[in-house]
Amino acid sequence: MKLWSDEQLIKSLPRYQHMKNQSSQRFDVSRFVDIEARINLIKSETAARFSYDRVKTATLNYEHRQALIKSLEDKSKRASYEGNLFAKSLLEKEIEEIVSH
Known about the structure:
Blueprint: H1 6-23, H2 35-49, H3 54-58, H4 62-82, H5 85-100
Helix pairs in contact: 1-2, 1-4, 4-5
């Protein structure tokens, strides 16, 4: 079951990391949200979502594979724009795996 959309995953991690940094300075957000647990949950969901699946991609024809690569490249650019280097690196690894197979 998906907890977040891809877009939410890309945007959420930098926001929660920023909240974690800010909570120690002015306002303690941790009273309301377990930030560390949320960051770990987002990272695990991101890793599960943006990891290479050989069985899934083995059945794709050339056009579908190119469309998948384009979609992943767009998500990677969006992750970079949002400052989510974790998702960006996972997406780039997935693209490399798809291209190499």
